[in-house]
Amino acid sequence: VQLQASGGGLVQAGGCLRLSCAASGSISSINAMEWYRQAPGKQRELVAIIRSGGSTNVADSVKGRFTTSRNNAKNTVYLQMNSLKPEDTAVYYCAAEGLSYNDYGEPVARRDWGQGTQVTVSS
Protein backbone atom coordinates (compact mmCIF):
# COMPACT_ATOMS: atom_id res chain seq x y z
CA VAL A 1 0.00 0.00 0.00
CA GLN A 2 1.28 3.44 -0.92
CA LEU A 3 0.20 6.41 1.15
CA GLN A 4 0.39 10.11 0.36
CA ALA A 5 -0.24 12.50 3.23
CA SER A 6 -0.94 16.20 2.86
CA GLY A 7 -2.47 19.16 4.63
CA GLY A 8 0.08 20.12 7.24
CA GLY A 9 1.14 23.67 7.88
CA LEU A 10 1.49 26.50 10.34
CA VAL A 11 -1.53 27.57 12.34
CA GLN A 12 -2.18 29.66 15.41
CA ALA A 13 -3.37 28.12 18.63
CA GLY A 14 -7.10 27.58 18.52
CA GLY A 15 -7.05 27.10 14.78
CA CYS A 16 -7.78 24.03 12.72
CA LEU A 17 -6.25 21.91 10.00
CA ARG A 18 -7.36 18.90 8.05
CA LEU A 19 -4.85 16.28 7.05
CA SER A 20 -5.51 13.92 4.17
CA CYS A 21 -3.99 10.55 3.37
CA ALA A 22 -4.62 9.00 -0.02
CA ALA A 23 -4.04 5.26 -0.35
CA SER A 24 -3.24 3.27 -3.45
CA GLY A 25 -2.21 -0.27 -4.18
CA SER A 26 -3.63 -3.23 -2.25
CA ILE A 27 -6.50 -1.32 -0.69
CA SER A 28 -8.43 -4.48 0.08
CA SER A 29 -5.67 -5.70 2.40
CA ILE A 30 -6.11 -2.75 4.76
CA ASN A 31 -7.71 -3.49 8.14
CA ALA A 32 -7.31 -0.02 9.58
CA MET A 33 -5.90 3.39 8.80
CA GLU A 34 -4.00 5.14 11.54
CA TRP A 35 -2.66 8.57 12.29
CA TYR A 36 0.50 8.95 14.33
CA ARG A 37 2.51 11.94 15.35
CA GLN A 38 6.04 12.49 16.54
CA ALA A 39 7.20 15.62 18.26
CA PRO A 40 10.91 16.46 18.54
CA GLY A 41 12.57 14.33 21.20
CA LYS A 42 9.45 12.25 21.77
CA GLN A 43 8.29 8.84 20.72
CA ARG A 44 5.82 8.39 17.92
CA GLU A 45 2.31 8.14 19.31
CA LEU A 46 -0.95 6.87 17.89
CA VAL A 47 -3.42 9.72 17.51
CA ALA A 48 -6.40 8.18 15.73
CA ILE A 49 -7.56 5.02 14.04
CA ILE A 50 -10.38 4.20 11.67
CA ARG A 51 -11.08 0.54 11.06
CA SER A 52 -12.40 -1.13 7.95
CA GLY A 53 -15.82 -1.44 9.56
CA GLY A 54 -15.88 2.29 10.20
CA SER A 55 -15.31 2.44 13.93
CA THR A 56 -12.89 5.07 15.16
CA ASN A 57 -10.88 5.90 18.23
CA VAL A 58 -8.73 8.87 19.13
CA ALA A 59 -6.11 9.32 21.79
CA ASP A 60 -7.20 10.86 25.08
CA SER A 61 -4.88 13.80 24.44
CA VAL A 62 -6.90 14.86 21.39
CA LYS A 63 -10.36 13.61 22.31
CA GLY A 64 -13.01 16.20 21.62
CA ARG A 65 -10.70 18.09 19.27
CA PHE A 66 -9.60 15.60 16.59
CA THR A 67 -11.73 13.30 14.49
CA THR A 68 -10.89 10.89 11.72
CA SER A 69 -13.04 9.95 8.77
CA ARG A 70 -12.74 8.50 5.32
CA ASN A 71 -14.01 8.77 1.79
CA ASN A 72 -14.06 5.27 0.34
CA ALA A 73 -14.64 6.50 -3.20
CA LYS A 74 -11.40 8.46 -3.01
CA ASN A 75 -9.48 5.89 -0.91
CA THR A 76 -8.67 8.77 1.40
CA VAL A 77 -8.76 9.20 5.14
CA TYR A 78 -8.80 12.49 6.97
CA LEU A 79 -7.72 13.83 10.32
CA GLN A 80 -9.71 16.90 11.27
CA MET A 81 -7.86 18.83 13.94
CA ASN A 82 -9.72 21.58 15.77
CA SER A 83 -8.78 23.77 18.72
CA LEU A 84 -5.13 23.14 18.04
CA LYS A 85 -2.62 23.65 20.81
CA PRO A 86 1.13 24.27 20.66
CA GLU A 87 1.65 20.79 22.11
CA ASP A 88 0.04 19.36 18.96
CA THR A 89 3.10 20.47 17.03
CA ALA A 90 4.63 17.37 15.45
CA VAL A 91 5.21 15.52 12.25
CA TYR A 92 2.03 13.59 11.48
CA TYR A 93 2.10 10.27 9.69
CA CYS A 94 -0.63 8.09 8.26
CA ALA A 95 -0.26 4.34 8.25
CA ALA A 96 -2.15 1.40 6.80
CA GLU A 97 -2.39 -1.68 8.99
CA GLY A 98 -3.25 -4.90 7.25
CA LEU A 99 -2.16 -8.30 6.07
CA SER A 100 0.02 -9.61 3.34
CA TYR A 101 0.95 -13.20 2.58
CA ASN A 102 4.36 -14.80 2.58
CA ASP A 103 5.64 -17.38 0.10
CA TYR A 104 3.90 -20.10 2.10
CA GLY A 105 0.56 -18.42 1.90
CA GLU A 106 0.64 -17.50 5.57
CA PRO A 107 -0.78 -14.13 6.61
CA VAL A 108 1.77 -11.65 7.82
CA ALA A 109 0.84 -8.46 9.61
CA ARG A 110 2.19 -5.32 8.03
CA ARG A 111 2.04 -1.59 8.44
CA ASP A 112 2.79 0.74 5.56
CA TRP A 113 3.70 4.36 6.23
CA GLY A 114 3.14 7.56 4.38
CA GLN A 115 5.61 10.39 4.41
CA GLY A 116 5.16 12.74 7.33
CA THR A 117 3.55 16.12 7.16
CA GLN A 118 4.59 18.87 9.55
CA VAL A 119 2.00 20.54 11.75
CA THR A 120 3.19 23.58 13.68
CA VAL A 121 0.93 25.37 16.13
CA SER A 122 2.11 28.76 17.31
CA SER A 123 1.08 30.21 20.64
Polypeptide structure, described:
With 123 residues, the chain is mostly beta strands. It has strands at 2-6, 9-12, 17-24, 30-38, 45-51, 56-58, 66-71, 76-81, 90-101, 107-113, 117-122. Strands 2, 4, 5, 6, 9, 10 and 11 form a seven-stranded mixed sheet that branches. Strands 1-3-8-7 form a four-stranded antiparallel sheet, with no helix packed on it. A hairpin with a 4-residue loop joins β7 (66-71) and β8 (76-81). It starts with a strand and ends with a strand. The relative contact order is 0.31.
Short structural description:
The protein has 123 residues and is mostly beta strands.
The main sheet comes to: 7 strands, mixed
Helix content: under 10%
Number of separate helices:
0
Shape estimate = elongated
Kindly report how far apart the N and C termini lie: 37 Å
Number of DSSP E strands: 11
| Global structural class | mainly beta
Low-confidence stretches: none
Which range does the strand content fall in? over 45%
H/E series, N to C? EEEEEEEEEEE
Any idea what the radius of gyration is?
15 Å
Mean pLDDT: 95
